[in-house]
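Reading group handout, session on sequence-to-structure problems. Before we discuss, look at one worked example. The prompt was deliberately terse, the way you'd type it at a terminal:

> structure ABC transporter substrate-binding protein

The input record follows.
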Amino acid sequence: MKKPVLHRAMRAYTRTATYAVSATALVLVVSACGSAPGATQTRTITDDPIPAFTFALAAAPISLDITKDFGPSMQVQTLFTEPLERLSGEGELRPHLAEAVSVPDPTTIDYVIRSDVRFSDGTLLTPEDVIWSLRHVSDSAAGAQTAGELESLESIEQTGPMRVTVKLSHPDPVARQSIALFGLIQQARFAEEHAAELGTAQAVPVGTGPYRVQEYSSSGVQLVRNNDYWSEQPAPETLKFDVIPDGNTAQLAMRSGDIQAANVADIKKQSQWKQIGGIDTIEVPLTKLTYLTFDTSTSPFDDVHVRKAVAHSIDRKGIAEAAFGNDSAILKGLATPEMLTGVAGSPGNAQSFLDGLGGIEFDSNLAAQELAASSHPQGFTVEVPYTDNVNWTELTVLNLQQNLAPLGVTVVPKPITQTQWISDLYAHKVPGIGFLSITASTPDPKLIGSVVGKENAVAPKFNASNWSTDSVEQALPVLNGSTSPLDRWTAAQTILTGIHEQLPYVPLFNPNLVYAIADGFAFDRDMSFYDFVNGSWVTAVKATS
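And the output record:
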């Protein structure tokens, strides 16, 4: 098998940067009602049929083959092509097309495939289909966008009547989770016969899911229920995804009843959505990190006191309120609790550690003291690029410009396009001060390891700060390759503590995703972001009275 070349964190970032709202189309809504995660439902769930349900997409899928588009399209793709396992928001894996999964050693994953599953055309799912699909999504030589998420896969072979064995090139603590997310299974025969156009309207992949694609165009996607689906049938008979790029237009469509759900792309406008009669808005926590970067290999940011002076000059709370309203959290470290829970042992342990870091205080006196203690006590001039259509980056630059001026530091804002932003990242040309936004593909701390370390301080890797320490170098192999959660938790704490103390990065915000759902509909259980990524959300959609 050809070895993938793209890095998991870089690919996660690219999808975030390319689609301004990251995974906006990945999620429908999360709970029946309420403006906070886990809110108590007030709508009464019924078993009434749902003839049609329409969701507003910000943009049409580029392709319905995951190897060509694994960002916003995944919510649609996982309704007709399915994974072997489903990943929960807590990092738990649940059998799906595979009825059993075992890990006999750190570099082997055995899948026992269900024998009663049929594709939507009536043919049985076979190990050959699974093998072809996993090779397809990990084939970097063919340009699979998903290959960077599956870089440790070395071989995929049939080892029994319904058994498929995946061999890894090295221990990878998130390989199984990545296969669960990106290893969507499709019929090999159809895919091979339509290789050139696979994923287009002329060659939609044949899958085993609860729906099949009826229509696909630049206007959206329409799916109809697969009445021979092997598992629980969803309530909506027809699912339609209409492309509505403008938020105001989506609001009008919701008011008129043309759509039943939508992503609130500008989350500060949540109050406007709430004014629509019967509408509920729901906040969805996301493992998304936004942060400031310093190039610690160049002056003046090779001086930790300069970095601290800048960090103490950022009014995170004020910027967050201006950019996101009340729908974001201030990061206390370069991780969210959800990213750490799997190795920390519990959400409480993860949160306790982050609380212990304490974040960075906005304090002009502390900023002045740090600059006075630096090698640039009289200040300096720095040009700071920001992406011209991502408002929190511009707000942060203007905030720094205002707050650093009294210290003799001149900040010169420079707007750039997202395309240039991504290009600079891949070329390892992030300037003295830059901005990054990454979303963890899996609820795991491995992403943290991709932004530090000597090995990652070169193009096209992801250590934009060019920062490392001896303790970080020792912790990285453990974080990236150990099979011991306790050892990985220790390594994650070492790296996060080092980042907090030396500030190669300044953690900023973790904004929520916000969604609106029309009166008459709800979910019958609590949902997570990953439920929508893996397709399980659709069986929770119910009519209400």
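Points for discussion. First: The longest helix spans residues 485-502. Second: The two ends are 53 Å apart (CA to CA).
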